[in-house]
Design goal:
about 650 residues, mainly alpha, two-stranded antiparallel sheet, 25 helices, 4 strands, disordered N terminus
């Protein structure tokens, strides 16, 4: 597009709708002036700059020499990559793992395409990244010490003083010509891109973030086909080490397919977004109708994200051996009874004249559900666990029923939601309680990074709504809710997380009645959820307290109910303010999953710290695995932090 306010009608190139692009940078300074103003404006800052550069180079040199030292045994990590990510999942069933990863790629591509609000990177910033990466690599080439000379049998060559002999500096630089080539290409590409445009064009021309991300991932995956990273694996109990080969076909081919799925579904998402906006019913000329249609499309994708962790783990990865005779004789009739009778009860509770009778009936349902759980604890009578869950869900729906009273469409929506919830709950309970056909040496279906990610995702999904409810209860005017929420939050925050995990994993099963069990994974997720919810509640409460009193008064003035005021006025503003602490708590929850080893689960850290060093081929090799695990944790945490910053800019946090 052409901006008449720019000199000569300068064209601003935007490759995709820049709904959330950052504003153009200020005019660039000449390199010499930029260095003087930012690094050496006075003597004190000049000294600090020199010290900081020396410290950074010293740390960078130490890290490089540690990583590329001849003493490091990186084949221990390369060989055990499958172990680190999926633990002992059977190799003959590994297609299920790729199906799960492919499902995530499909949803990610659709989400990125449908949202289409990822902004762009200016040419100025992109050139800076390219030249910085090239300079970083060049500095690493110079700082890394020359390699140790070895004999034909692989032993180190030593001098008379028994010190290791190293190759000359010139020989080391010549040996690293591929790294020099990469550094020159990056710096040259940055300089060429910089010189191809003037300063104004560099600041006002953007490259889509999605294109950069897909290109970077594609280059990394594509390199596995040409770069000889080596083939390392355990196959039939034997250690395979072939450093002169490319990555095995069973690895590079699936990842290539995953990348193609990501890019293809992104294109489908963009097309679907355009079609929805173009073909949405707009008979009355209302511009809000296309937005509502797009909102429904996004809601469907969000629902798929919410359901996917449960389906992928309990259906795809576990491959449950379902007893269909039991399903047809017991589970299906019970589900139909709950769906039909529950719909009738909810339809009755949402009558326009239900009034206090409806509220008393909802409280009665809650007391009935509580009685069933108490009876189960003391073993008074037997009942399928899914039945107790069904009564509890019906009681919760009954408490929400007054918000849907009066209007027929709202009543039908509540009844329809109840029928869908019953189907999902009964199907989920059947799948979870059905034995798995997957057999592993440890009895756990997955381990390593898979169980770390699974526990973190479920903890975040379950603890966030619970934390919001606790925050609302703690700020409620009702003393009973305020006291209960405050007591729970303060008690949980005063107990160490490891104590909570041990309680749910070891202590609680001792008090369960016969026939009721709590698996290790369920115990871990329960402990993490209840612990994280207390901290999330305080983060949300801080956001709630930032809402001015006038917002409540305005909502009351237009006749909004308490639920409508909270859902449409208070919570959106409170959650917007709470984004930084909420993301901080999410990152902390992800890193705290490293405590899973305490309760016996084979998580990411435990495999690197305890399992790999005890393998016959890699006895005592621990540092390499710990460094790799630390890098993976950092990449995930850094990605969440950067997305949080982008989200803050999108919602204007700190700007208005």
């Amino acid at each position: 597009m052409t901006d008449p306010m720019l000199p000569g009608g300068t064209t601003v190139v935007v490759a995709e709708p820049m709904t959330s692009a950052s504003p153009p940078d200020r005019p660039s300074l000449p390199p010499g002036r930029w260095v003087r103003e930012n690094l050496f404006p006075n003597k004190r800052n000049a000294v600090l700059t020199v010290l900081a550069v020396l410290l950074a180079l010293f740390a960078y040199r130490g890290l490089l020499n540690f990583v590329f030292s001849e003493e490091r045994s990186w084949p221990a990590v390369r060989t055990n990559l499958r172990l680190l990510f999926t633990h002992a999942y059977p190799e003959e069933q590994y297609m299920r793992v790729w199906v799960s990863v492919g499902t995530v790629m499909v949803l990610a591509g659709l989400s990125i395409g449908i949202w289409a609000r990822w902004g762009g990177v200016s040419i100025k910033r992109l050139t800076g990244w390219l030249m910085s990466a090239g300079a970083f690599i060049a500095a690493g080439i110079l700082l890394r010490e020359p390699s140790v000379l070895t004999h034909a049998d692989g032993s180190f060559q030593r001098d008379a003083a028994d010190d290791r002999l190293r190759e000359s500096f010139a020989a080391a630089m010549a040996e690293r010509w591929t790294w020099w080539l990469l550094a020159v290409v990056l710096i040259g590409a940055g300089l060429a891109l910089w010189a191809s445009r003037d300063d104004l064009a560099r600041r006002t021309t953007f490259v889509p973030t999605t294109s950069l991300l897909f290109a970077l991932v594609g280059i990394i995956i594509g390199s596995t086909w040409v770069v000889r990273y080596g083939h390392y694996a355990f196959k039939e109990g034997e250690f395979i080490a072939e450093p002169g080969r490319t990555v095995a076909l069973t690895t590079k081919l699936p990842w290539t397919v995953m990348w193609l799925l990501l890019v293809g579904c992104f294109a489908i998402g963009r097309i679907a977004r355009a079609q929805v906006l173009a073909n949405a019913p707009d008979d009355e000329g209302d511009p809000e109708l296309p937005r509502e249609a797009l909102g429904r499309t996004r809601a469907a994708v969000n629902l798929a994200w919410l359901v996917s962790p449960f389906v992928l783990f309990w259906v795809v990865l576990r491959d449950p051996d379902i007893d269909y005779a039991h399903v047809y004789s017991t589970i299906l009739p019970m589900a139909l009874a709950f769906a039909v009778l529950g719909s009738a009860v909810l339809w009755w509770l949402t009558r326009p004249n239900a009034g206090e009778v409806g509220r008393l009936a909802a409280i009665g349902l809650l007391l009935l559900a509580a009685f069933h759980w108490v009876a189960a604890f003391f073993g008074w009578y037997s009942m399928l666990q899914v039945g107790r869950i069904g009564f509890l869900l019906l009681a919760m729906a009954g408490l929400l029923a007054p918000n849907f009273a009066g209007v027929g469409a709202q009543r039908r929506r509540l009844v329809g939601a109840w029928a869908v919830a019953v189907a999902l709950v009964f199907y989920g309970a059947t799948v979870i309680n059905t034995p798995s056909t997957i057999s592993t040496p440890t009895g756990a279906i997955v381990g390593g990074f898979s169980v770390t990610l699974f526990v973190a995702v479920l903890t975040i999904m379950l603890s966030f709504p619970l934390g919001v409810v606790l925050a609302l209860a703690r700020t409620s005017r009702q003393p009973i809710f305020r006291v209960l929420a405050t007591s729970y939050i303060e008690i949980v925050r005063g107990i160490p997380l490891i104590t909570v995990l041990i309680f749910f994993s070891i202590v609680l099963p001792l008090f369960l009645p016969p026939g009721m069990e709590l698996g290790e994974l369920a115990a871990a997720i329960t402990g993490y959820t209840l612990f994280s919810a207390a901290y999330l509640a305080e983060n949300v409460r801080g956001g709630l307290q930032s809402i001015r009193r006038g917002q409540y008064e305005a909502a009351d003035a237009v006749g909004l109910t308490t639920t409508q005021r909270t859902g449409f006025i208070v919570l959106p503003q409170a959650l917007r303010v709470s984004i930084p602490p909420l993301v901080g708590q999410i990152i902390a929850t992800f890193k705290e999953t490293s405590l899973l080893a305490i309760i016996g689960l084979f998580d990411f850290l435990r495999l690197a710290n305890s399992v790999i060093p005890n393998q016959t081929q890699f006895l005592g090799v621990r540092r390499e695995g710990l460094l790799f695990v630390s890098a993976v944790y950092w990449v995930v945490a850094f990605s969440m932090s950067k997305y949080s910053q982008r989200l803050e800019r999108r919602v204007g946090l700190g700007q208005r």
